[in-house]
């Protein structure tokens, strides 16, 4: 039998890349999310003078955001599941867009605290909505990459804010900075509502791409109660890691501009370059931390050794920040802080992988939610403590000492709770419950 010429064979269906447009929208939303939340941190040294709040009151304002963020994490998933990603995401970003612009109306501590609380409620919906959207639009083998792309928006936003906000505030006043970033959120919302549909409802999606998106076997959808997850030591290992280290990142976001202004006298426009360098280093650390764990796994290390080995390297990178408060040179301080932010993001990349190392896929999101709630609660406590500390002593030394030691202590606690990162079994199987 003669072979059929290749030119006579039907051309393979072109899969298409529409799903990556959806991912680009998620990246834009996450970037705006972090720009909106960091506007206050960038402007804080100058708002403190103009509005007249003290360190304790600023701590309360930051705590209001974190408290709302923690509460939002408890209910955002249910709201998004109830209304779907199109409307659920729209509700979240509408709330945070209005809240961001509402900062321009604040005239005192209470006004800023109310605006920050509303912003925290809205912004808590971003990651649950984005992760659910990825699950709707991507086959399982592409989801980690898609999540990695949109999650990079957190560092992009942290870089854009100190570049954009001082220019807008210097040209048109601090109120304009809040209005401008809130309008960016509103623009995204309008595009989302006009354009976004689920894959089955999107006419521009090719049949081949829809088949790719739906190519995985059906996943279990049985809801796993938090009570069941809290009975396992693996959950508490992740909670401990988040509780002990998340507040350090909140400190970096909300207090670094104040530190650089207080210690080195930087003006609003001078803050941009040091903050951009710090958060570019953080972005590099995020990539490097994930790469290191993968490299160790490819070298034959066990998941336990590779994950904890990478976490140890990242924890050690944070330790030198203890010298930052006493640095007599701005760029030495920027280098030490940038190394620490890189260490934190590398640490975070590995910590966020712990639930998937230890739990079945259907439980991962719930475990991440529990840990996120713990981290936000801890952030509230540390923000209030930092406000009182700076008001009474004016010294950042204790905060940097805490930051430098938190990661090594957290790694020790994680190792004591789960010495081998043993997987847990749910649904009646024998798992290693908390002793």
TrEMBL record:
Its annotated compartments are: Cell inner membrane
In the bilayer, the protein is annotated as: Multi-pass membrane protein
Q: Which InterPro entries match?
A: MFS (IPR011701), MFS_dom (IPR020846), MFS_Na/Anion_cotransporter (IPR050382), MFS_trans_sf (IPR036259)
Q: Which residue range or ranges hold the Major facilitator superfamily (MFS) profile domain?
A: 22-422
Family the entry assigns:
Belongs to the major facilitator superfamily. Phthalate permease family.
Gene3D superfamilies reported for this sequence: MFS general substrate transporter like domains
Principal place where this protein is found? membrane
Key words, A-Z? Cell inner membrane, Cell membrane, Membrane, Signal, Transmembrane, Transmembrane helix, Transport
Q: Which GO terms describe its molecular function?
A: hexuronate transmembrane transporter activity
The protein, known as: MFS transporter
Give the originating organism: Stenotrophomonas tumulicola
């Amino acid at each position: 039998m003669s072979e059929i010429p290749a030119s006579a064979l039907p051309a393979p269906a072109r899969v298409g890349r529409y799903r990556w447009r959806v991912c680009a929208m998620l990246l834009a939303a996450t970037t705006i999310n972090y720009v909106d939340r960091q506007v206050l941190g960038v402007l804080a040294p100058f708002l403190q003078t103009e509005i007249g709040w003290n360190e304790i009151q600023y701590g309360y304002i930051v705590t209001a955001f974190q408290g709302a963020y923690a509460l939002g994490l408890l209910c955002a998933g249910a709201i998004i599941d109830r209304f779907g990603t199109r409307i659920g995401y729209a509700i979240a970003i509408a709330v945070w867009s209005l809240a961001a612009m509402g900062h321009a109306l604040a005239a005192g501590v209470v006004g800023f605290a109310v605006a920050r609380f509303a912003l925290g409620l809205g912004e808590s919906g971003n990651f649950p909505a984005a992760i659910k959207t990825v699950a709707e639009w991507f086959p399982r083998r592409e989801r980690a990459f898609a999540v990695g792309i949109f999650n990079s928006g957190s560092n992009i936003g942290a870089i854009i804010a100190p570049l954009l906000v001082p220019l807008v505030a210097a040209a048109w006043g601090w109120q304009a900075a809040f209005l401008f970033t809130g309008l960016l959120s509103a623009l995204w919302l309008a595009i989302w509502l006009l354009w976004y549909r689920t894959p089955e409802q999107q006419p521009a999606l090719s049949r081949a791409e829809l088949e790719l998106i739906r190519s995985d076997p059906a996943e279990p959808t049985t809801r796993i109660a938090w009570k069941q997850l809290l009975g396992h030591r693996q959950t508490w290992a992740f909670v401990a890691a988040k509780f002990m280290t998340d507040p350090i990142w909140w400190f970096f976001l909300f207090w670094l501009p104040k530190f650089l202004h207080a210690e080195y006298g930087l003006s609003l426009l001078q803050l941009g370059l040091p903050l951009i360098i710090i958060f570019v280093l953080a972005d590099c650390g995020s990539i490097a931390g994930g790469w290191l764990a993968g490299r160790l796994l490819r070298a034959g290390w066990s998941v336990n050794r590779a994950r904890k080995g990478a976490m140890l390297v990242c924890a050690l990178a944070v330790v030198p920040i203890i010298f930052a408060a006493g640095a007599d040179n701005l760029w030495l301080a920027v280098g030490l802080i940038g190394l620490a932010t890189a260490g934190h993001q590398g640490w975070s990349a590995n910590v966020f992988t712990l639930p998937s190392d230890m739990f079945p896929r259907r439980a991962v999101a719930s475990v991440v939610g529990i840990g996120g709630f713990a981290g936000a609660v801890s952030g509230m406590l540390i923000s209030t403590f930092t406000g009182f500390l700076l008001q009474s002593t004016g010294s950042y030394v204790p905060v940097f000492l805490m930051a430098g030691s938190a990661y090594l202590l957290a790694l020790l606690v994680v190792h004591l709770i789960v010495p081998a990162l043993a997987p847990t079994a749910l649904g009646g199987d024998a798992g290693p419950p908390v002793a």
